[in-house]
Amino acid sequence: MNPAANTLGGAASPYLRQHADNPVHWQQWTPQALAEAAERDVPILLSVGYAACHWCHVMAHESFEDDEVAAVMNSGFVCVKVDREERPDIDAVYMNATVALTGQGGWPMTCFLTPDGRPFFCGTYYPKAAFLQLLSAITETWRNRRGEVEQASDRIADELRAIASGLPGGGPEVQPALCDHAVAAVLRDEDTVRGGFGGAPKFPPSALLEALLRHYERTGSPHSLTAVARTCTAMARGGIYDQLAGGFARYSVDDAWVVPHFEKMLYDNALLLRVYAHWARRTGDALARRVAGETARFLLVELTDADMFTSSLDADADGREGSTYVWTPAQLAEVLGDADGRWAADIFAVTPSGTFENGSSVLQLPKDPDDPARFERVRDALRAARLNRPQPNRDDKVVTAWNGLAITALAEASVALQAPELADAARRCAAALISLHLVDGRLRRASLGGVVGESAAILEDHAMLATGLLTLYQLTGDGTWLATATELLDIALAHFADPDRPGRWFDSADDAEQLVLRPADPLDGATPSGASSVTEALLIAAHLVSGERAERYRQAAADALRAHSPLLQRAPRSAGHWLAVAECAVRGPLQIAVACDPSQSALLAEARRLAPGGAVVVGGAAGSSQLLAGRGRVDGADAAYVCRGGVCDMPVTTTPELMAALGVPE
């Protein structure tokens, strides 16, 4: 059988389309590709990456665009290319295998599989010479030592199943003491000099920061708030933050947030927008407000397409990493003139020796300049000049889960920043996403250019979108958002919950494509896990619906928290979002229902501003929502009802009374 030609030209993924002109006979992951491998009796060469990945581009240029390498790949393998963002289920299975075999993972991920999908050798990036040697060795082993391949693939498959089933069993009920223990463990790992946790490379610890903010709101712990302020300040003043146009890069290659890996991801910026908005709401910090506003603007200007949000901006431009963003003193002077150029070099820490390659520097902002008007004039001029440089490509794929994160962040930031236009953007995104991605009652993972893909949504898609819709419902009172959110949660309970282990969740649906292993990873990473995200959504929704459905949601959330409480005991840094959800849960979660006219209630506005992260806040006439059943205004005045779990305080009618009920200092 002749190998199929490259079939990626019609793919829905921009990452796959980047490889459509390769001489490699790439195919998408399909049953036909696996069948071809079986018919030809050759291994599958699986390459997994994503559009904004720098080292994916490097390996593509070195090997996949090379005729010599392509000839070897085509003759000895069925070559399959996967976008990890479009098929996170495939990525999860084979990343676990890669980590198990090598002790580390990353992208591009390079795996060799039997025709039925069992991995027998895995790695990441290989330079051309090493890759050719590896291809030769794999081919020789496949042809002449097939028994070793079968033994290795069976052993790896068994190990993956053991890892999946080896998570700790259910633990204790989540109580304040467990949250206190987890926070103390996290704070012991803080870099108290440079901010963040651990050493280089440093990733924005978004979920941990959200958890620490919620812990501060519950306990008043100054250490938690100090850690948030230290890390958020260091990131906002470092090179990981775009000092000219806003938005965060994916991570810093050093431990001081100076030099980023320049790709900008939707999920990072949505999560960080939420953190900075909450920091601003709670403290009024001027840096927090500015960075939150600029990050929101970055989403709306750089990543918006047809009201929804695209996935990322590339790390490279014109084949060079970071070339859009870095400056030398001479370049600053060329744009700004000598005087402003020297001033800009000083405030942005641009030096003759540089902080990046070839004497160039990534812009930082160690302190706020003493001339704000001059600062804005300089930034405007540099932004305009930067637009004349090669620009990074944008991955225009719309991912359901990450748009859910953006909806939540924009809606919450609209309250923190008193910016109703952000809530409007969240509503437009939600409407467009539901219209396109909800097909015949089931959710899809991604779309491109208004055309929805075939990939089924996974647990995080249902959970993160549901949370966004629940946030919109609380903000607008529009029951449509609540109805769709509960529909998604009912699907999650029916198709993703583990029927044999209460509180456990699979990442792929029971009726989705069956891989060599059904992925189920509860650990939080760069994004919250599907399991912690669905627990958050269930916890909120349980207080917005009634009857049997409310009890079902409440029990499912309680089961999930108990099932995963060992993570808070043993590995809280890998359970940052679980900790944020737990902080919310131990407060009830806090519920605030304001009987009022929502369009003009100052008390409702104060309730939204004062409510801690994760609280449920609704406003409206008596009986207009579940939390307002039987609750109305008091003596003609707007009234706020504060409840913790099923216990409610007497209604209050003034802001000082509300602050006292919430335990917020005046």
TrEMBL record:
Domain of life where this protein originates: Bacteria
Transmembrane region(s): none
Domain Spermatogenesis-associated protein 20-like TRX: 6-160
InterPro entries (UniProt xref): 6-hairpin_glycosidase_sf (IPR008928), Ssp411 (IPR024705), Ssp411-like_TRX (IPR004879), Thioredoxin-like_sf (IPR036249)
Pfam families: Thioredox_DsbH
One GO-annotated biological process of the protein: carbohydrate metabolic process
Record protein name field: Spermatogenesis-associated protein 20-like TRX domain-containing protein
Organism this protein belongs to: Mycobacterium botniense
Higher taxonomy: Bacteria, Bacillati, Actinomycetota, Actinomycetes, Mycobacteriales
